[in-house]
Specification:
The complex is a heterotrimer of chains A (520), B (295) and C (343). Chain A is an alpha/beta fold and 520 residues long. Chain A has helices at 47-54, 77-82, 100-104, 125-138, 154-167, 184-199, 211-217, 240-248, 310-317, 340-348, 359-363, 370-375, 379-382, 390-403, 419-431, 450-465, 477-483, 507-514; strands at 5-16, 21-32, 36-40, 62-67, 70-72, 85-88, 172-176, 203-208, 220-225, 228-234, 268-276, 290-295, 298-303, 325-330, 333-336, 352-355, 383-384, 387-388, 438-442, 469-474, 486-491, 494-500. Chain A folds into 3 domains: 1-84 and 171-249, Rossmann fold, CATH 3.40.50.300; 95-167, no CATH class; 268-514, Rossmann fold. In chain A, the strands form 5 sheets. A 6-stranded mixed β-sheet of chain A has the order 6-7-8-3-9-10, sandwiched between helices. Chain A has a 6-stranded mixed β-sheet with strand order 16-19-20-13-21-22, sandwiched between helices. Chain B is built from 14 helices and 2 strands. Chain B has a two-stranded antiparallel ribbon with strand order 1-2. The radius of gyration of chain B is 19 Å and the shape is globular. The chains are: A alpha/beta (520), B mainly alpha (295), C mainly alpha (343). Chains in contact: A-B, A-C, B-C. The interface between A and B is medium-sized, with 21 and 18 residues.
């Protein structure tokens, strides 16, 4: 008879170097056998890290793990597998050109005997397909075993991933935000399967930030915040609103954040209607029919949790992803999705200033000196008739370094800077330009310490007060509430709210929109 | 048979002969391509195979021993390449270039040491073993084109078919393809992508070694620069065949046809031979552009 | 995780240079009867008199120019493997002009025409690969190699056909009249004033890279393409331009050889130069100033090999082996620690 507790994790801590951020800080987790256990929290709360530790993909700095009441050390994914633990990742680990059956039984393919020269095992493809069929039928999955997985829909690919774990005799199945890429119908189907699996005695750990799903399917739920586990609750004895408050760290009738004084909004700078896109990559969410506008002297905050379309919106606003539909009206000049190059020209001319969220890949060239990165955006100013104005460039860089308190030297290689300092460099660069009509700022304070974040917030407010329009794309609710005059929330690629940031709007309310338990 | 038909048969017959080295090398290169490493050293590996294969065959007066030596030497070089790229984390293209240079240097230096010449080294070898009964080769048209070939040429086709089977149907082949598609997933699932890459390099060595040897046998000699670009053409055949063995074989035949045609035209027409020599490369380049997807 | 030691750029250069010299000495020890004199021939003879020194420097000049070209291509993350053909085509264009020009033309005018024609011919060929990559996604490595193979055959046709010198037993064009050849320095060696041009070019490219907007934008394209797009830099244009410049410098190197040491266009005279230039660029580690010592080093290896061949029966192709070893070490990102096995 197996013990009642499937997994017990105690005092798990994990720090990522070199940033030194605590992804897990003494996290505790107890999971009962044969239950569906949800793990919830905001972006960056440490859910995925904790699950990666359980699946052998990360080693904890400290803490103990017990599986079936026996202390274990999970040093590799193979070790986790041997213990019956498997994880379905948010980005599938798929081999696109291999068939579903080959993906499911990767490394466990049935072989014909004898091997050629005793070495080369030929896969018995008939048996392989049969086994895949049997496995799929056993768990009620409808997967075509011989189709290359690259041709399958996202939900079928996910089923292949789950079947792969089941084929490996997994008893504890971890799913990392499995529904973020699914339609509602597909989500329903997935949940039926998960309920079936629970009936068959499997233990399921579900990482998510969608509360409605937790309430619908999970037996118990553990809330995480800033690397710590806040508590574990029976879903039968907690309400969705209470759970939302626990996740967001507020009380149900919480105070609204102090928002900077209202202002008189100027003329419309950017108006977008019917904006739709395809998904940016396989884990993404396409946008459908967004419509919003932003005025001079106004901050429009756009908030979403990961995989709800914020990345796609950023790429459109950055000129990297051409939308499939939509019209844009910029300072009286109108064009539609087919003439997206006109939008790109606005960026190039400096009428729109954009701050990327992915600072390392998009915002800097790490191998170049700080000064080169600083002057790269505004080359018209720092090069006169093609020649560099090095004195000016150096002075401007040093001023920015002083003004934003960046610990760097102008001639230092950017790769040597910490993530926070790189971010400050990118922000400083943007605000040193001539005043643009529109700022598009994506996760401007992600990873910054409190003082630097204050500084950046102050700059954003000054830019707004000087008459620029600001689009603030952020998954940090506090930041959105603090800076925005109006707030838009995206959920599954659609806008579910567009509110004035006034009295009744608070963290709990935004949380409900973000987590999908309230919609407009 | 009329003269014109004779010429036609000759061109097609030589097409099959010229396709042999290309087929060996490109199918070998396919393995490393599938494992995610573009092997630009096929050219050099073929040269190494040609030199050591011919040297061993000449010494032993035995073609089989020559083939073994060709394989062994080319595999040794490809393992060296694999070691430097994987263990020392060097750039695979630069190491590929280095292997090409190394091959040219080693074969010439040794040719000078052993045969005291840097030019043509002719070998007297036993006559190539015909793969089919002589009667078959007498069939008009089809006989000379299909059934007049040596065992080595027939083996090239068996090699392609065998490789196709291994790539599609063996655990080993699946592992190699998976590494090229998603190496990270392979290692998360508990297998070593590096091992698959090394194995793929070995396959590359076997194929290009035999390809080089076939080239040497076809002229019963070794000359520096005997490969003269065929390794690169074999590489293009992999692209043009879209990494599918059957289509790669078809591409090899196409390039071999261009070579065969240029050989013929050199002898029998007023077009200057040097211009005609450019034909196989031109065909290769045009087909590469045709296969490339326009932005 | 595998235990390994990161290799920094200076360490790589030292390792590559050291190992290839050690290997050269090792090969000499294996093959020559009299090691002492072979070593002396390899390492000292190139510097032993004015004639040898001049010839050694003359060998380094085309390596400097072509190596600079490879470096520019590398900087935009392009591999130009068509150097042999670009060099050859540049040489042929130069030969055509120098042989056809009326005898009374001022030599300076001829030199300028020859240099410009050589550079433009090489540039056109290089740009073709750049365009194929930018618009058809054809790998520039393979296309440049294939184009080069075609160009070599076509050039060979001209050299041995319409331009063949009827009086010569070699496959070559006629001699270029002496007044159109570049003035020599360090006579009687082959060294001529193109050494000065090579140095000037390297200085110009250094200034362009460090001080101008074009150099700045090219560097950003090569270092991080996504960042370059964020900055609004036309990435594709820079890639084509870099391939064109790279081919142009190869073509120029070929043209200068024709009106310099060669004095005519001979079939196959470029053999290996295109590849050696790649070693030079690798050794220079992305730094224009590094091209000079790198070219001197590679030319030293090849001159040394030539001297040894004359003396002790080791063929000069040993240079390829030495270069190959140097390339492997220069490209190595890390040294595995052999003592501790995988954990």
């Amino acid at each position: 008879m197996l013990p009642m507790t499937a997994v017990r994790m105690r005092g798990i801590s994990k720090r990522y170097l070199p940033s030194g951020v605590h992804a897990n800080d003494g996290a505790e987790l107890v999971v009962e056998r044969g239950s569906i256990h949800a793990l919830v929290g905001e972006n960056g709360a440490g859910k995925t890290t904790l699950m990666k530790i359980l699946a052998g993909l990360e080693l904890p700095d400290s803490g103990d793990i017990e599986v079936d009441d026996k202390p274990v050390r999970i040093s590799s994914p193979a070790r986790a597998r041997a213990l019956g633990i498997g994880m379905v990742h948010q980005h599938f680990l798929m081999f696109d050109e291999l068939s579903a059956a080959e993906n499911i039984f990767f490394g466990l393919e049935p072989e014909r005997r004898p091997r050629i020269l005793g070495l080369l095992g030929i896969v018995d493809s008939v048996k392989l397909t049969e086994r895949a069929m049997t496995l799929a039928q056993e768990y009620g999955f409808a997967v075509e075993p011989s189709a290359p997985v690259g041709t399958l829909s996202i939900s079928s690919r996910q089923q292949v991933e789950i079947l792969r774990q089941l084929a490996g005799q997994v008893r504890i199945l971890i799913l990392d935000e499995p529904t973020s890429v699914l339609t509602e119908q597909e989500t329903e189907t997935l949940f039926e399967k998960l309920t079936d699996l629970r009936r068959m005695g499997r233990t399921i750990l579900l990482v998510t930030h969608k509360i409605d799903e937790v309430m619908q399917i999970a037996d118990r739920v553990t809330v995480m915040r800033r690397g710590k586990t806040i508590g574990t609750y029976d879903t039968a004895s907690i309400s969705a609103n209470e759970l939302a408050c626990l996740i967001m760290g507020t009380t149900p009738h919480g105070e609204s954040m102090l928002h900077a004084a209202p202002h008189a909004a100027g003329p419309s700078v950017l108006r977008i209607e019917g904006l739709s896109t395809r998904r940016r990559h396989q884990g993404g969410t396409g946008l459908s029919g967004l419509a919003f506008d932003v005025h001079g002297g106004e901050v429009l905050g756009i908030c979403a949790l990961s995989s709800n379309g914020l990345d796609e919106l950023e790429d459109v606003l950055a000129g990297f992803l051409a939308p499939t539909a939509g019209t844009c009206l910029f300072c009286g000049h109108q064009f539609d999705a087919r003439r997206f190059h006109e939008y790109r020209r606005l960026l190039k001319e400096g009428k729109i200033a954009y701050l990327p969220s992915d600072r390392v890949r998009r915002a800097v060239a790490l191998s170049l000196p700080v000064m080169d990165n600083f002057i790269a955006l505004d080359r018209r100013m720092y090069f006169a008739r093609g020649w560099i104005r090095s004195a000016l460039a150096k002075r401007a860089t040093q001023e920015a370094i002083r003004g934003f308190d960046i610990s760097a030297r102008a001639e230092q290689t950017t790769a040597e800077l910490s993530g926070g300092n790189i971010q400050k460099l990118a922000v400083a660069r943007l605000f040193s330009k001539e005043r643009p009509e529109l700022f598009v700022l994506c996760e401007p304070t992600w990873g910054l310490d409190i003082r630097s974040a204050e500084q950046v917030h102050d700059r954003i407010q000054r830019a707004r007060d000087a008459g620029s329009a600001v689009l603030l794309l952020s998954s940090d609710v506090d930041e959105i509430l603090r800076l925005s005059d109006r707030i838009m929330v995206l959920y599954r690629g659609k806008q579910v709210a567009l509110l004035e940031n006034a009295g009744q709007v608070n963290r709990a309310l935004i949380g409900e929109y973000l987590l999908g338990i309230r919609s407009a | 048979m009329s003269d014109r038909a004779m010429i036609f048969v000759d061109i097609l017959k030589y097409t099959v002969v010229a396709a042999t080295p290309l087929l060996y090398a490109s199918i070998g290169g396919l393995f490393s391509e599938l494992a995610g490493m573009l092997n630009i050293a096929l050219e050099g590996l073929m040269g190494i195979g040609a030199f050591f294969g011919m040297a061993a065959a000449g010494l032993s007066h035995n073609v089989f021993i020559g083939a073994v030596a060709a394989i062994t030497s080319a595999v040794a070089a490809s393992l060296l390449m694999g070691a430097v790229t994987i263990r020392f984390r060097a750039n695979v293209f630069i190491v590929g270039l280095a292997i090409n240079l190394l091959a040219g240097g080693v074969t010439t230096v040794l040719s000078q040491r052993w045969y005291h010449t840097k030019a043509v080294v002719a070998f007297s070898l036993p006559a190539p073993l015909p793969a089919f009964p002589a009667a078959l080769a007498q069939i008009p048209f089809v006989g000379p084109i299909l059934f007049s070939h040596s065992v080595l040429t027939v083996c090239a086709w068996l090699w392609a078919i065998g490789a196709a089977f291994i790539i599609r149907n063996s655990r080993h082949g699946i592992r190699i393809r998976a590494t090229g598609m998603n190496a990270q997933a392979v290692s998360v699932l508990g297998y070593s992508p590096d091992r698959a890459r090394v194995a793929a390099m070995i396959w590359s060595g076997v194929g290009s070694g035999l390809g080089g040897f076939a080239l040497g046998l076809s002229i019963s000699a070794f000359v520096p620069n005997i490969v003269s670009g065929r390794g690169w053409i074999a590489l293009v055949a992999i692209y043009l065949g879209q990494k599918k063995p059957l289509w790669i074989a078809a591409s090899c035949l196409l390039f071999a046809f261009a070579e065969s045609l240029s050989n013929y035209v050199q002898g029998f027409s007023s077009i200057p031979p040097l211009l005609v020599l450019a034909l196989p490369y031109a065909v290769t380049l045009v087909s590469l552009i045709a296969a490339g997807n326009k932005k | 995780m595998r235990a390994e030691r990161e290799l920094q750029s200076p360490a790589r250069v030292v390792l590559a240079v050291g190992v290839s010299i050690a290997l050269a000495a090792g090969v000499l020890a294996l093959f020559s009867q009299d090691l002492g004199s072979a070593l002396a021939q390899f390492f000292l003879e190139p510097f032993s008199n004015r004639y040898f020194l001049g010839n050694y420097l003359a060998d380094a000049v085309p390596l400097m120019i072509a190596g600079l070209g490879v470096l520019i291509a590398f900087r935009s993350k392009n591999f130009n493997l068509g150097g042999e053909g670009q060099l050859y085509a540049g040489a042929l264009a130069a030969g055509l002009i120098a042989l056809r020009v009326p005898a009374g033309t001022a030599p300076v005018v001829v030199w300028i025409w020859v240099a410009v024609a050589g550079a433009l011919t090489g540039a056109a060929i290089g740009a073709l690969s750049g365009l194929l990559k930018a618009f058809w996604r054809v790998s520039e490595m393979i296309s440049s190699f294939l184009i080069s193979a075609i160009v070599i055959n076509v050039s060979d046709f001209f050299i041995t056909g319409p331009l063949q010198d009827p009086a010569s037993n070699f496959q070559t064009t006629r001699q270029i009249v002496p007044q159109f050849l570049l003035p020599r320095i360090l006579a009687p060696s082959k060294l001529d004033v193109s050494l000065g041009l090579a140095i000037v070019l390297i200085l110009v490219f250094m200034v362009v890279a460090k001080r101008t907007r074009v150099g700045f934008e090219l560097r950003i394209c090569g270092e991080n393409e996504e960042f370059a797009r964020y900055c609004g830099i036309p990435v594709a244009a820079y890639q084509v331009a870099a391939m064109a410049v790279s081919g142009g410098l190869y073509g120029l190197a070929g043209a200068l050889l024709v009106i310099g040491p060669q004095g005519r266009v001979m079939r196959g005279f470029s053999s290996g130069l295109g590849w050696s230039a790649i070693s030079v660029a690798l050794l220079a580690q992305g730094n224009e100033a590094g091209v000079v010592p790198a070219a001197l080093f590679i030319a030293f290896l090849s001159t040394g090999s030539d001297h040894v061949m004359m003396g002790s029966g080791v063929p000069s192709e040993i240079i390829s082996i030495l270069q190959a070893v140097a390339m492997c070490f220069i490209s190595a990102g890390a040294l595995p620690r052999f003592r501790r096995r995988q954990s």
